[in-house]
Amino acid sequence: MTGPTAFRLRQLASPRRPPPGPGTVRLAAALLLRLGCVALLAWIGYIHLHLWQEGYRHIPTNGPLFLLDAVAGFVLAAVLLTWPRPLAGLLAAGYTASTLGALIISLSVGLFGFRESISASFVTESLTIESITVLALISWTVLVAATLRPPARGPRPVAQPGPRHLHRDGPVPVQPGEEGR
Fold first, then answer.
1. What is the mean pLDDT of residues 51-72?
2. Helices within the chain (DSSP H only)
3. Most Cβ neighbours (<10 Å): which of 16, 57, 128, 160?
4. CB-based contact 121:56 (threshold 8 Å)
5. Cα–Cα distance for residue pair 158/101, rounded to 1 Å
6. Residue 115 has pLDDT above 80, yes or no
7. pLDDT tier at 63, thresholds 50, 70, 90
8. Please, which residues have CB within 8 angstroms of residue 180's CB and are 6 or more apart in sequence?
């Protein structure tokens, strides 16, 4: 075995790793929560696409909104997966809360002339999934925003300019030994 390979194997087998600290646990929790939120958003998108394909597309105004809701669910899931920022969590939570609100309005008084029934397919599932998703997205957003650290605000280092010669294209640094010229 060569020297670097043996060193690398010893390093990999070494039990001297420090135990995971609170920052590691928080990062793991945030990752698992984010992946769960991504799955829930995709599930919401799937339910809306399925309902649109099963006949909701023929309902005026609500039909196109179901397709838009499906596309938005898939897009926000992809955004949250690839761009894990608090803004993405807030956008996804707003989308989910508005979808949940539209379902509740449709169940209670009707929305755009269409009143949903609690016994219709996927209504109780949607109420449950969307409620859990809103709570999970808000939790993830708060967790990620709390772990973001603002940049340190210390005294800014002052640049000390060295000796320079003026040139028609601008200042040129002086080479060592040319200071007195």
1. 89
2. 3-13, 22-53, 62-82, 86-108, 123-147
3. 57
4. no
5. 55
6. no
7. confident
8. none
15: helix, coil or strand?
Answer: coil
d(CA 125, CA 96): 14
Distance CA 111, CA 139 (A): 29
Backbone torsions φ then ψ of 99, nearest 5 degrees: -65, -45
- Rounded to the nearest 10°, the torsion over CA 101, 102, 103, 106 is 120
Type of residue numbered 48: H
Q: Which residue has the higher pLDDT, 95 or 25?
A: 95
Rounded-to-integer distance, Cα 89 and Cα 34, Å: 9
pLDDT computed for residue 49 by the predictor:
95
Instruction: Give residue 23's identity as a one-letter amino acid code.
Output: G
